[in-house]
Structure formats: C-alpha cells, structure tokens
Specification:
The chain has 338 residues and is an alpha/beta fold. 34% of the residues lie in helices and 17% in strands. The longest helix has 21 residues, at 317-337. It starts with a strand and ends with a helix. It binds manganese (II) ion. It comes from Candidatus Limousia pullorum. Residues 82-335 form the DAHP synthetase I/KDSA domain. Residues 1-68 form the DAHP synthase ferredoxin-like domain.
Length: 338
C-alpha cells in the first residue's frame, strides 16, 4: 500500500501516523521525503487496513493498494490448487473435468430422477436442481422449496450422484445439511450475512459471480466465506450484464484464466445462464473447457418446452450427451497434447 501525504503534514503527524500503522497493523513502513510531499510504503499484510479510513485522514493526499485485498483466496499465499473432494470421491480442481447437470428447477420425483439417470449415463458426476428459486418476477414459479430438496435426495439415492442446489437465506442453512454442495446464486453473491454464515459450514460452496460483479468483488465474496473458516469454495462464472441483448448475459471466458492466476480456487462455468439459448450452450461449454475450466454446470430437462423455469436454455438429455462426449474428448486431447 502506498500513501502520499499532503505537503502541510507536520513531522509529528507523520511520526504518529507511522507509529499507529506499525503497531495496529503489524506492517513495516518505508518513508520517502520529497520536496513537496512525503510518501509512505507499507510492507506486509495490508488486507486488514481499511483504505477508506486512511483516505479520510485530512493529512493524506492519496492512497493506493498495490496488493490484492483478499488473502485466503489469493494464489500468492497458497500456490497449489485447491482440490474439493465430495463424499463419493469426485474431485473438483485436480485437473479433471467435472460436469454438474440437471434441471433448472426440481418439478417432480419422476422428472428429476429421470434426468439424473440420463445425465449420469452421459458422464455427469454431480446433479444440479433448484428447490428455492430466485426469480425476477414474484409471480413466476418459486420452486418446490423443502419438498424439492427431498426430491433431489431421492434422485441422489437412485443414482449415487451428489447434489448441488441453491440457498437463498441464512435461516435455511439447517435444511441444507444433507446437500453435497451449497450454491450461492448470482443475486446473492454480495449477501454478506449469508456468506459469513456459510463460512461456518463444513461443506463445499459453489459461489456464482454476480450479474455485474468485477473479478475482485467476486474474489472478495469468496474471501468472506473463507475468512469464516470454510476453505471449500468453488467459483462459478455464469455471464455478466453488458450492453449486448442477444444473449441473456455475456459469458466472460477471460475470467477463467484470470481467476486461476489470481486464486487457487477451482472455477466452473455455467454456459446455460450465460447465454440463455440452448444452441449456444455446447459451443460455449467447449470454449470454457479450452480456456481451462475445472467443470461445467449445465441445465438439462427431459421436456424443455414445458419446463417450469429456463426451458429456452435447457438441453434435452440427447443434446447433453452429445455435448458431454465432445468436452470429455477435448479434455483428453488437452491432457495429452497441450
Ligand atoms: Mn436456471
């Protein structure tokens, strides 16, 4: 962190300020005295320092971070990849490709179990499905809620696939005790109270990127969960809001290598919500794998035309099978040749 002091800052103020910084934050302060101003260079862990507090001091001209504000999610302090292992031995982040697939919403036991069986045959290793649905319209289908969770568990029993499903509020955490991966949706990425509580849970968290979140904001949300003691965070790029209206969102493929260089956490990509159109899901899934994604999360429905949610972006089990064959083939090719 670099702090530029105003020319009128007295020697006593500089001394008091540097003493406060060294004692309170345990950092080393280097001082350069110029003709017009004094510059302080802080060395050490500056993540605890509130940059706005520093900026608010009337003798401070400007302040700039030169190091990322997140520590636990930062690859600098944890060079090796984090690998998340699920109860059935599935590993995310170990160099393999894992696919989470299933319906947007759980609609009935037959629907979710049938889809789970089909996607498993195609190579999916995790079943996705929404029980609590955050919908743009309050009049749209809100999910089967607790019953939906039970139906997901029934599908897990029938197939052995671990389940990932979205949580929307802190008071529901107990209900998610038997869920394998808890998803935090894009709209809740900055629900800090929820993130803090999930930091106390000993379970993997799939953290989707917010609709208009920067990569740093997304990593700071991961930091919230990790600061609470839960290191099992999986990041999910699901498209961001841009001026483009052709697709539901714009898939930020560059986020994959960027996040993987900044952080040690695994990254999965959701081409379904990113594009909103079923015919774009396969090419974007292929692109995501080529860009280094550790996994994909894809919406599959046995009858997309009658799906209660997100039918237009859902693949049929046959379309998913074709996609899975291609991405696994690409992953194998990359392993051997790239
Ligand atoms: Mn959906």
């Amino acid at each position: 962190m670099i702090i530029v002091l105003k020319p009128e800052c007295s020697k006593e103020q500089v001394l008091m300020f540097t003493d406060m910084l060294t004692s309170q934050y345990n950092v080393k302060v280097n001082k350069w005295e110029g003709v017009h101003s004094t510059v302080l260079g802080l060395i050490g862990d500056t993540t605890q320092i509130d940059i706005d507090y520093i900026d608010a001091q009337d003798f401070v001209e400007s302040v700039k971070r030169v190091q990322e504000p997140y520590k636990k999610a930062n690859r600098k302090f944890h060079p090796e990849n984090t690998v998340i292992e699920l109860s059935n031995g599935v590993k995310i982040g170990d160099g393999s490709l894992q696919i989470m697939a299933g319906p947007c919403s759980v609609e009935s036991e037959e629907q979710v179990t049938e889809i789970a069986k089909r996607v498993k045959l195609s190579g999916a290793s995790i079943l996705r499905g929404g029980a609590f649905k955050p919908r743009t319209s309050p009049y749209a289908f809100q999910g089967l809620k607790a019953e939906g969770l039970d139906l997901l568990k029934a599908a897990r029993k029938a197939t052995g696939l671990p389940i990932v499903t979205e949580i929307m509020r802190v008071s529901h955490i107990d209900m998610f005790e038997n869920v394998d991966i808890i998803q935090v949706g894009a709209r809740n990425m900055q629900n800090f109270e929820l993130l803090k509580e999930l930091g106390k849970v000993n379970k993997p968290i799939l953290l989707k990127r917010g609709l208009s979140a920067t990569i740093e904001e997304w990593l700071m949300s991961a930091e919230y969960i990790m600061a609470g003691g839960n290191d099992q965070v999986i990041l999910c790029e699901r498209g961001i809001r841009t001026y483009e209206t052709f697709t539901r969102n714009t898939l930020d493929l560059s986020a994959i290598p960027i996040v993987k260089s900044l952080s040690h956490l695994p990254v999965v990509v959701d081409p379904s919500h990113a594009t909103g159109k079923s015919w774009l899901v396969e090419p974007m899934a292929i692109a995501a794998v080529a860009a280094g994604a550790d996994g994909l999360i894809i919406e599959v429905h046995n009858d997309p035309a009658h799906a209660l949610c997100d039918g237009a972006q859902s693949l049929t089990p046959d379309q998913f099978d074709s996609l899975a064959k291609k991405v696994f083939k690409l992953k194998d090719y990359m392993k051997d040749n790239i």
